[in-house]
Design a protein that fits this description.
The protein is mainly β. The protein has four helices and 34 strands.
Length: 446
């Protein structure tokens, strides 16, 4: 696999602060919802990727990456079309690379076999690939897809290559009375866009609104809160990266590192304006320079929406027994300055296996950040649970594929190696850091 030379422009983008105005050109207008109030455009809904069932019951569809002026798009839209699946679906998803550079298709967060995910495979211009898989039970939630061509990930993400995936299942019936909205955050030049539109507005249609929050930026940390008249209003967390939590959890803010997802329920029975806001946040740790708050989107709540009951219980989330771990490891983010990023003191080499684990075993990993900025840790193919942060037990069980590790911090995770063996990767999900080598190779063997 040939590695690309990273430009100086890309190398200067560090610490989760992505440069503005790197991508010129507009974003296509997506299919809009109800007419928005005069203070902003309507929140678009993503077009849906057509999936056709054959006689064998397998759903078939294709994503095509193409250039469009100064941007690149999947199937002509940026963000790309929504891939709608259900637990138990059998899928045959094709991908064609019509760009003038290597690319690939990573279905981020879905626990797919390493051979299906194929994160070390690059497709040359004009090449095609096919990913065949069954959607596992228990993974209903919000996911996304994007390129994974090492050395060029950041450029392709900023140019428009990203799209959402929604998997539904039986638990969704508990929330069927909610207004269900997908909000996908990407960077468009200097602004953070929501579904391809800057600061959109929508009108809820139910007394409780489900917000599927997806951070698909190349390197922006978003501390998200909902404000009414400038004050935070509580929301209820119902899902993280890997789907539903056990029961709704009341919060006033949700941190979304690049790649992370969260689903929250918002009470929309009181008429008025709610603002979904990126709150001040520092990627340099406590006391570091923080970002300025800005509005992501607004909800104009009409009068008279009837209340919707909050579910008391969503599902059972398996408890992983740390005492049964076959091995404990220490994974260290490191580096110097803005252009040297390492994992365990090394930069990425696709020929080298950095870690070897055995299938059907449980491991505990201490993910340590010895660098000066936040690093979101992402593991392909194998979902994990956070056990503790800096020694403090995690307050809730949840399946994850990405977790933020602040500078000087340690996040301890439990990783059960289930499914299929194979070779995959783990890395920082700030795309410029990944491109510059903050990635390792994991091989899971029988």
């Amino acid at each position: 696999m040939a590695e690309r030379k990273v430009s100086r422009r890309t190398a200067l983008i560090a610490g989760g602060l992505t440069a503005g105005a790197l991508v010129a050109g507009g974003v296509p207008l997506l299919r809009a919802t109800l007419a928005a109030p005069a203070d902003g455009p309507a929140l678009p809904r993503h077009p849906t990727l057509p999936l056709h069932a054959g006689e064998d019951g397998v759903l078939r569809g294709e994503l095509v990456a193409t250039a469009s002026g100064n941007s690149v798009r999947y199937n002509g839209s940026a963000p790309g079309p929504l891939v709608k699946l259900r637990e138990g679906d059998r899928v045959r998803l094709g991908f064609r690379n019509d760009l003038d550079a290597d690319s690939s298709l990573h279905l981020h967060g879905l626990p797919l076999a390493p051979a299906v995910d194929a994160p070390l495979t690059h497709l040359s211009p004009g090449a095609t690939s096919t990913q065949e898989f069954a959607v596992p039970e228990g993974v209903a939630g919000t996911y996304w897809y994007h390129p994974h061509a090492h050395g060029d990930v950041e450029r392709q993400l900023l140019a428009g290559l990203a799209g959402p995936i929604v998997v539904t299942g039986a638990t969704d019936e508990l929330l069927k009375a909610c207004d269900d909205r997908l909000l996908m955050f990407t960077r468009t030049g200097r602004d953070i866009s929501v579904n391809g539109t800057v600061r959109p507005v929508f009108v809820p249609t139910s007394g409780r609104t489900r917000l599927r929050l997806l951070n698909a930026t190349a390197g922006d940390h978003l501390l998200v809160g909902v404000l009414r008249s400038g004050d935070r209003t509580p929301v209820h967390l119902v899902a993280t990266d890997g789907g539903f939590v056990a029961e709704p959890v009341e919060l006033t803010e949700v941190l979304l590192a690049p790649g992370e997802r969260a689903e929250v329920l918002v009470d929309t029975t009181v008429a008025g304006r709610l603002e979904l806001t990126a709150l001040p946040y520092s990627v340099y740790g406590e006391g570091g320079a923080a970002s300025t708050a800005f509005r992501l989107a607004a909800l104009h709540v009409p009068a008279g929406l009837p209340p919707v009951a909050l579910p008391a219980r969503l599902r059972d989330v398996e408890a992983l027994d740390e005492a049964k771990a076959a091995r404990r490891r220490r994974i260290v983010f490191g580096g110097t300055g803005t252009d040297h990023f390492t994992l365990d003191g090394k930069t990425f080499d696709h020929h080298r296996v950095d870690l070897e684990a055995r299938l059907d075993t449980l491991e505990v990993w201490d993910v340590v950040n010895d660098h000066t900025t936040d690093h979101p840790f992402h593991l392909h193919s194998y979902s994990f649970q956070v056990l503790s942060r800096d020694g403090a037990p995690e307050p809730r069980r949840a399946w994850r594929d990405t977790v933020n590790v602040p500078p000087g911090g340690t996040v301890t995770i439990a990783v059960p190696f289930r499914g299929e063996p194979g070779r995959t990767v783990y890395h920082c999900h700030i795309a410029s850091h990944e491109d510059l080598g903050m990635m390792g190779v994991l091989e899971v063997v029988r």
